[in-house]
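User: I'm writing a short report section on ligand binding and want a predicted complex to refer to. Could you take this sequence and adenosine-5'-diphosphate and write out the structure as tokens? A short remark afterwards would be nice.
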Amino acid sequence: MTYVVGLTGGIGSGKSATTAQFETLGITVIDADIVARQVVMPGTPCLKAIAEHFGPQILSQEGQLDRKALRQKVFSNPEEKNWLNELLHPAIRQEILTQLEQAQSPYAILSAPLLLENGLEQYCQRVIVVDVPETTQIERTVQRDDSPRTEVEAIMAAQLSREKRLEKADDVLHNDGSLEMLQKQVNDLHQRYLAATVAQEK
Ligand code: ADP
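Assistant: Sure. The structure tokens for the complex follow:
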């Protein structure tokens, strides 16, 4: 069984910066946001179900999911939103488990903004939380996405609070310093996880 390390943190905390470093170290990273797009690619059972439910106008001319059209359909329609979640959540979970099983590196990282909110930590031996003060989170996200501060705050309001997230952490990456300082902390954790996987095999 793959040794799985969960990785989470609020928007703009530095999850992508962290997974990039784990990938540099040769570790397989499974990103829940990427899986969420993979399960609705052309030819998937989920996309077929969505097209049947909402009609063919939910697809672009090339047969891709029109995400904007879908968002409009479920926005302010809780029933449709539930229908969609009940279709997608199990499919995403199953695909995550399949990809984790196939991982070839000594351990694998499962990165998800809503890892704890969605109960994905049950598949993880350990959970890393990337932590920054909320002000830093807002500043970095505004700069990265060029999106209004109020939009970032609304996303943060739908995520666990900093305190609640930290309570569930086995390991914390403090990302209020430089990128080099983050990378050094990742390298240290990497050594610990390698040692843990060797111990597990014995
Ligand atoms: P997340 O994936 O958690 O939303 P990112 O990894 O995209 O967060 O980081 C948010 C933004 O902040 C990105 O533009 C990233 O390059 C930048 N960033 C991340 N860590 C640092 C750091 N230690 N110092 C400066 N900028 C950082």
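A remark for your report: The longest helix spans residues 78-102. The domain at 35-104 is CATH 3.40.50.300 (Rossmann fold).
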